[in-house]
Amino acid sequence: MEAVKEIMEPYFQENGKIDMHHFEQKKDVSYLLALMINCEFVLDTNTEISNFGADDIIPVRLEIEDNTVLKYWGKINWLSKPSEHQCHRSFQDPFYGEFTFDHQELKIEKMLFGSYDQTDLDGSYWVDAEVNWMYEFKR
Questions:
Q1: pLDDT tens digits, 43-94
Q2: In 69-125, which residue ranges form alpha helices assigned H by DSSP?
Q3: Which of the residues 33, 93, 107, 108 has an alpha carbon 20 to 30 A from that of 3?
Q4: How far is CA 111 from CA 21, 82, 94, 108, 130, in A?
Q5: What value, to the nearest 5°, has the Cα angle with vertex 88 and ends 83 and 90?
């Protein structure tokens, strides 16, 4: 989590959308956040969620709110998932997460993933659409 914090900390100085065309750490953040949520999956007592393993979470849109909340829309690529879990593509789901940066620590506050409607993830229009989320994790 320290590595994610180091990359994202400067962005918490401003509010609003992060220009994804100039966000050079996309690859690093996508892998590091996947590691971060994999830890949550392993620790979760819900066996349904603990059967997921993320490879990366490709950022589609990032926004900072009130200099404390990172809103992260992305495409999560699974290393493993329950066999009955249906995705838009065989191993890709929509992802939304809210992360807080407080007292020099980055924390997962909320994450949503999976789409009952198997939302088409081509392009970024789905970020502004209503997604029928399968799973929700809140702290």
A1: 877 667 778 899 999 999 999 998 888 899 999 999 998 888 888 777 899 9
A2: none
A3: 93
A4: 24, 18, 11, 7, 15
A5: 45
3-state secondary structure of 2: helix
> How far is it, in rounded angstroms, from Cα 74 to Cα 61?
7
Q: Give the SS3 label for residue 138.
A: strand
Torsion of CA 121, 125, 129, 134, to 10 degrees: 20
Q: What is the CA radius of gyration of the chain?
A: 14
- Sheet strands side by side (includes 16-17): 16-17, 53-65, 69-80, 92-102, 105-115, 133-138
Could you tell me where the beta strands, DSSP code E, fall in the chain? 16-17, 53-65, 69-80, 92-102, 105-115, 133-138
DSSP for 18-32? Answer: --GGG-TTHHHHHHH
Q: What's the CA gap between 56 and 92, in Å, rounded?
A: 10
